[in-house]
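Below is one such record:
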Amino acid sequence: MDGILKLKDRLYPMATPAGAYFAVASQEKTLARRLLSQILRLGHSVPLTEELLAEWCDGDGEAALDTLYRLQRLDFVHGTETPRPTLGSNLESQLPPVLTALSDSGRAMLADDNGLYYAAAGFHHETAEEVAALAGDIISLGRRHALLLQQHLNLGSSAWAVANPAGASELAFYPLYIGQQSFVLIIGGMPRLQDQHFVTLVELLARRYA
């Protein structure tokens, strides 16, 4: 497949939207998630070599290659021949336009797990505060019932949604775990997570908090 990462070509590694979501959707720090975290933090600026790959995977070169190839087969990573443009350092000013692109209605927010919001697009300030508080309650609820949801019911996602009668999401809450920080991505309307803007959001947060 064109663009798939090959070490011999010294490509710049990049996470796909699916890879970015996998990297931050769980608190479980597997080798695959740790490698994706490094790619999200630094892959835009350094071509990948076997030495760097091993360094990102605790010095185990064989396990690093196995993990990378598995991520490639899942279409979680690919490579580019040129480095991506550097993202600006002002996180607060960059978040609103990125959030806007993640919803078909232009309404999205980023909050922490304590119910405080960092940035919002398409929500009035007072509404954003209340929705962020709701997000904090939902994340707390999810943690209390994690055993039921993830093991007994075998659900692969920790996201929650308010759905309309047709089953479409009208307000969705996606926990994002980055470094020691926990966030909630809140999307009003139909989510657009299979988009480069979602990768940009996770990259911005990873470079600040991972």
Q: What stands out?
A: The CA atoms of residues 23 and 36 lie 6 Å apart. DSSP finds eight helices and seven strands in the chain. Residues 1-5 have pLDDT under 50 and may be disordered.
